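Example 9 (inverse folding). The structure is encoded as follows.
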């Protein structure tokens, strides 16, 4: 099963993680207590590939937004010189070609964390990357873009926490409710439908839809499906050798054909082909 880093996060999602690790160094660290209600964790990437070599990084994202500074890799669609980026929830596989040398430092917000901090609905960022200055204070963005700071990961993490702490809002009971629900969905694999989740938390599917759409940008059905797909891919990467039908049933698919369609649409190959590539 995916390694749980805290109540609302896992480290699942990187496709072919062993191959990824041969090309890119990935580090994660917990958020400090001052920002932990809104921030899942810090993460960083560093790579140095010889000329002519490249690696296709493929990730099944989480229902979260991120704040990154990116050197050596220019995000598609970003204006020249914009290195600090906010990325919303990605509903599709997130692909990046890794070439040359580069470094990325990032903050992964908790589900709904960026909306709770800024008051802006997350639906405006779904499947989009935007300059961070469009979302967060200019002072914060300018500080995080400092090349000298980028070369010191610990200092960069301290700076981003200090700047985010300066914009911390009043307590938000609706966001706290969302996090309780997300934590439950992440941990309890018996929750397979939105109706299951609504019944567990004494609400209605329609109320859940409004809550998730505002804070996360996608509905609860999408979040359920993404977490279960993370579990499926992790099982395959860990060497699962049972039947794919049994794997599908374990995580909530009632027939293999439906499971194969969903897997192929998101991952890009059938479950059988993905397992054979291991």
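The amino acid assigned to each position is listed next.
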């Amino acid at each position: 099963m995916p390694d749980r880093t805290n109540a609302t996060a896992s480290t699942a999602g990187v496709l072919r993680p062993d191959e990824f690790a041969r090309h890119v160094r990935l580090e994660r660290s917990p958020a400090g207590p001052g920002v932990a209600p809104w921030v899942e964790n810090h993460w960083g990437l560093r790579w140095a590939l010889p000329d002519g070599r490249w690696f296709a990084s493929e990730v099944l994202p989480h229902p979260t937004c991120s704040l990154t500074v990116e050197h050596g890799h220019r995000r598609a669609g970003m204006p020249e010189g914009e290195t600090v980026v906010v990325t919303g929830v990605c509903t599709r596989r997130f692909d990046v070609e890794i070439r040359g040398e580069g470094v990325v430092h990032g903050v992964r917000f908790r589900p709904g964390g960026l909306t709770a901090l800024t008051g802006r609905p997350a639906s405006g960022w779904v499947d989009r990357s935007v300059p961070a200055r469009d979302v967060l204070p200019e002072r914060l963005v300018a500080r995080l873009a400092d090349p000298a700071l980028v070369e010191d990961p610990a200092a960069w993490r301290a700076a981003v926490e200090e700047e985010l702490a300066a914009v911390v809002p009043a307590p938000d009971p609706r966001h706290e409710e969302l996090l309780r629900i997300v934590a439950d969905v992440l941990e309890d694999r018996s929750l397979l439908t939105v109706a299951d989740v609504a019944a567990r938390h004494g609400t209605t599917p329609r109320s859940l839809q409004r809550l998730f759409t505002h804070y996360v940008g996608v509905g609860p059905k999408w979040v359920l499906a993404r977490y279960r797909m993370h579990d499926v891919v992790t099982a395959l990467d860990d060497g699962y050798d049972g039947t794919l039908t049994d794997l599908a049933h374990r995580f909530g698919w009632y027939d293999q054909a439906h499971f194969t369609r969903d897997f192929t649409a998101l991952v890009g190959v059938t479950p059988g082909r993905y397992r054979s590539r291991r």
